[in-house]
């Protein structure tokens, strides 16, 4: 009996030992995997670092590239496009105007009424639609026919608001959020598509003419009287409300900036023919490039797999279209190198499946269990991950968004440096003592809807400029500024009003 007991006890001890060994091994394996994932996170964090010194180098590089782009065509990756806009709205405009805005993921139609005073600006109708993906890869005929039909429906809905005995000639501003080589304020040729658009047969076509042709085909009596980049629309809106506004930036699906430049500084333009002595320049800063940009292996992969590789390098680090995909690529790498995200999800392997609005929702998830993170991961085919893994995902969002926001701030500071408003005494004004109030209008969902992006950007701009200078610089959010501003610009460029005030 005693022997049996001893044997049983020994057997139980052996089993307990093996169980313990398995558990210890498992735990060690788990720890190894966790360490691997933490290593990936650490590498990401290091690669995305944007210390102040580096940001200041970016500021200098942007100002230098701006200068080079103004000297000669093709002198820089920054196209520094002429807009032929030399007078910005000031509040005295009158009349009723339309704007059709083709952005990166939405298009909008608006109608604004101007009564000759800032306070009498009335946005009478706004319609917003997402752009069907099929349209982004269609033909120019399909695209412009779609835009013309949408405008036709919009106008049919408004009825006869004007209540006129004579027929009304409507005037439209076309806010076109892609790079265009303008030939006048109302005409220009597409340079290239960005933001995932790839519509054939457009090279060399005049964008305003294409839209006008489609409107004529529908028998619509509307004149496309202005062709406006979205940044220029935002600047016009900003200037309408506040004459100290000298630059505008869009942080949306894509990113870009424009600013008011002295015509004598635009050396590549021999005869700018402006009355005000300045002209708005569309920088197309999405294409900015510097070897000092903190680029990671995820950026390289994203660029290589994109439709426009080796192009729009800056936009691919700061644009709303791309941030979600960078985060997705990091999560995918982690999930391939360890099983902390469970079995590899095929959804997670799909490019652009994680949108930046989901990144912001995860980043700003304030529930104690990070339920929003869990919900979004579930949509990506990753379910039931522990809290510590959810926290890791939040950290990834933070690193990617913080880098974007700080680079964006460096971009703004670069413009301020170029125009001598960064307090350095360089640029056009050498008097360091006199700091003029400077307003930068900002438009775009990334800035307007993503609080953490906004906070990181504002903070970095203050750090770069220093408190003394930063107190003179106002960054103003302008919702719908691009569309409304284009209509205002059209109004200010018209000497004869075609629609009487309502
Ligand atoms: C386009 C710019 C546009 C920006 C913001 C970029 O992809 O090239 O023209 O202003 O997106 O919409």
Automatic annotation (TrEMBL):
Protein family membership: Belongs to the hexokinase family.
Protein name, UniProt field:
Phosphotransferase
Pathway noted in the entry:
Carbohydrate metabolism; hexose metabolism; Carbohydrate degradation; glycolysis; D-glyceraldehyde 3-phosphate and glycerone phosphate from D-glucose: step 1/4
GO terms for biological process, alphabetical: glycolytic process; intracellular glucose homeostasis
Q: What is its EC number?
A: 2.7.1.-
Q: Which InterPro entries match?
A: Hexokinase (IPR001312), Hexokinase_C (IPR022673), Hexokinase_N (IPR022672)
Presence of the UniProt keyword Mitochondrion in the record: yes
Compartment(s) where it occurs, according to its Swiss-Prot or TrEMBL record: Mitochondrion outer membrane
């Amino acid at each position: 009996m005693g022997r049996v007991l001893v044997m049983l006890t020994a057997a139980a001890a052996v089993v307990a030992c093996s169980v313990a060994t398995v558990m210890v091994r498992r735990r060690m394996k788990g720890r190894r995997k966790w360490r691997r994932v933490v290593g990936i996170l650490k590498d990401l964090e290091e690669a995305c670092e944007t210390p102040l010194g580096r940001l200041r180098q970016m500021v200098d590089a942007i100002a230098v590239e701006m200068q080079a782009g103004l000297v000669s065509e093709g002198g820089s990756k920054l196209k520094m496009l002429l807009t032929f806009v030399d007078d910005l709205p000031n509040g005295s405009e009158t009349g009723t105007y339309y704007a059709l805005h083709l952005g990166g993921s939405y298009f909008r139609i608006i109608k604004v009424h101007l009564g000759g005073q800032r306070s009498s600006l009335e946005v009478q109708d706004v319609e917003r639609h997402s752009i069907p993906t099929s349209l982004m890869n269609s033909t120019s005929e399909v695209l412009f026919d779609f835009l013309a039909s949408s405008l036709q429906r919009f106008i049919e809905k408004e009825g006869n608001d004007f209540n006129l005995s004579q027929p009304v000639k409507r005037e439209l501003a076309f806010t076109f959020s892609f790079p265009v080589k303008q030939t006048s304020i109302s005409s220009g040729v597409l340079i290239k598509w960005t933001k995932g658009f790839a519509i054939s047969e457009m090279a060399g076509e005049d964008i305003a003419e294409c839209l006008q042709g489609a409107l004529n085909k529908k028998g619509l009596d509307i004149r496309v009287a202005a062709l406006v980049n979205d940044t220029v629309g935002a600047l016009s809106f900003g200037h309408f409300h506040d004459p100290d506004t000298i630059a505008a930036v869009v942080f949306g699906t894509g990113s870009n900036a424009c600013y008011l430049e002295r015509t004598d500084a635009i050396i590549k333009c021999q005869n700018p023919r402006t009355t005000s002595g300045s002209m708005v320049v569309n920088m197309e800063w999405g294409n900015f490039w510097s070897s000092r940009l903190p680029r990671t292996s995820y950026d390289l992969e994203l660029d290589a797999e994109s439709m426009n590789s080796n192009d729009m390098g800056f936009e691919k680090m700061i644009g709303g279209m791309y941030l979600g995909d960078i985060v997705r690529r990091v999560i995918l790498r982690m999930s391939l190198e360890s099983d902390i995200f469970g079995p590899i999800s095929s959804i997670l392997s799909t490019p652009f499946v994680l949108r930046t609005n989901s990144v912001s929702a995860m980043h700003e998830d304030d529930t104690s269990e990070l339920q929003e993170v869990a919900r979004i991961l579930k949509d990506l085919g990753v379910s039931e991950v522990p809290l510590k893994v959810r926290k890791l995902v939040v950290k990834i969002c933070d690193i990617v968004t913080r880098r974007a926001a700080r680079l964006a701030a460096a971009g703004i500071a670069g413009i301020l440096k170029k125009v001598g408003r960064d307090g350095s005494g360089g640029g056009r004004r050498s008097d360091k003592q006199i700091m003029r109030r400077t307003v930068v209008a900002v438009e775009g969902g990334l800035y307007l809807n993503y609080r953490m992006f906004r906070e990181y950007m504002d903070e970095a701009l203050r750090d770069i400029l220093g408190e003394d200078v930063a107190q003179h610089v106002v960054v103003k959010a302008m919702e719908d500024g691009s569309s409304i501003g284009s209509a205002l610009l059209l109004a200010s460029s018209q000497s004869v009003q075609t629609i009487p005030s309502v």
